[in-house]
Amino acid sequence: MNVDKAVKTVRPFLTKRQMEVLKLRMKGLTQDQVAEILKTTRENVANLENRAYINIMRARITLKLLDELNPQNEIVIPAGTPITDVPRIILDRADMLGIKIVFGAETIYQYVKKKAKKRRDHLTAPLRVRILPSGKIKLTI
User: Fold this and answer.
1) For residue 36, what is the domain's CATH number?
2) Which range has the worst mean pLDDT, 4-8, 12-16, 70-74, 107-111?
3) Sheet holding 127-131: strands in order across?
4) Is the dihedral of CA 39, 45, 47, 49 positive or negative?
5) Domain count for the chain
6) Of 38, 69, 100, the domain-final residue
7) Burial of 16 (0-12, 13-18, 19+ CB in 10 A)
8) pTM for this model (two decimals)
9) 105 and which of 87, 110, 114, 137 could share a cystine (Cβ 3.0–4.6 Å)?
10) Greater confidence, 12 or 68?
11) What range defines the domain where residue 65 resides?
């Protein structure tokens, strides 16, 4: 789908009225002042503002879930891999994806050592690693 067409045909999560309220509130106006400008009640302004923030939260959650579904962000590290190699594998994939991991190699190593199925210093089962856009990682054993 063409993004320009989508912007014109798909309506945003926020209504025009919610946008008006948020713009005025972000300028520092009180709900009473916004109500006076928009010729409505303070209660209506409060409801519009509350619904706007709920819609923003829903949009953020939706985008986060979509990012987590991206198969490129997942690595399957095979059984038999030395645990000491895992941080480098994760950091290399993150570099390929253009994602800056928020943890250093030592922290990743400790996390994997604690969570992964292992015998001595090798994985005994495949380890799924999801690299999130935030730079965090999720391990699935």
Assistant:
1) 1.10.10.10
2) 4-8
3) 74-77, 127-131, 137-140
4) positive
5) 2
6) 69
7) exposed
8) 0.56
9) 87
10) 12
11) 3-69
